[in-house]
Amino acid sequence: MKKEITSNYEIACLKWQQVFVNMDKERLMELLPEIKIEGDYLTIYHFGRKFGVHIETGEIIAMEDDLPISISEKFNIYLLFHYVKPGARVKGEFVTFEKLKNTSQFKPAFVKSVLEPFANTFAGHMDKLKEACEKIGGKRIKASDMGYEINAFECIPIQFLFWDEDEEFEARASMLFDLGSTDFIHEESIVTIASVGVDRLIQVAGLNKASSRFDMK
User: Fold this and answer.
1) How far apart are CA 93 and CA 176, in angstroms?
2) Enclosing H/E stretch for 156
3) This model's pTM is above 0.90
4) Per-residue pLDDT tens digits for 163-215
5) In terms of domains, do 47 and 67 share one?
6) What span, in angstroms and rounded, lies between the C-alpha atoms of 204 and 206?
7) Which of 32, 38, 156, 186 has CA atoms 20 to 30 A from the CA of 110?
């Protein structure tokens, strides 16, 4: 029996899937050279996880594992494909979330759904954070107690910064984004991308995520 789709997120995701079906795939690959062709799929890595997007149907599958694919992961891929601008490039200058173009209004959601769960989940678990970052291809950077630069996509690198708890302070977290990120995807999607990154780290680390009312599955 075919699954009934009732979630507004699922309905919206199906609409974006159809948008992809009608895209010029050759043009898309010119704009995003990280996309590869493998058989009937365009493949792309999202936080170290390989996905395939069927060229004709737009269906997204995991290419190297059997783990569920979240609606957020699908949205990130479809919206990257739709919103990438001609001439978009990685600029190599990292800024805080609110300094990206048109993102300041989304800062409360970013703090609640991304930074707080990130800090709370990994408090006292820096060893697990280090291991998880490296498993998904992160590169250690000299910032914070535990800092790693990780590619959300090749075109959207993110610096994950973490300060562990001690006798005086609770654990804290921050993220820095390449200044060119919003030339690749809609600014509101940066929150979803960052949230998927935290979820991915937590999943790989084998921990339980701190609750957040903004979670979207």
Assistant:
1) 9
2) strand 156-163
3) yes
4) 999 888 999 999 999 999 999 999 999 999 999 999 999 999 999 987 543 34
5) yes
6) 5
7) 32
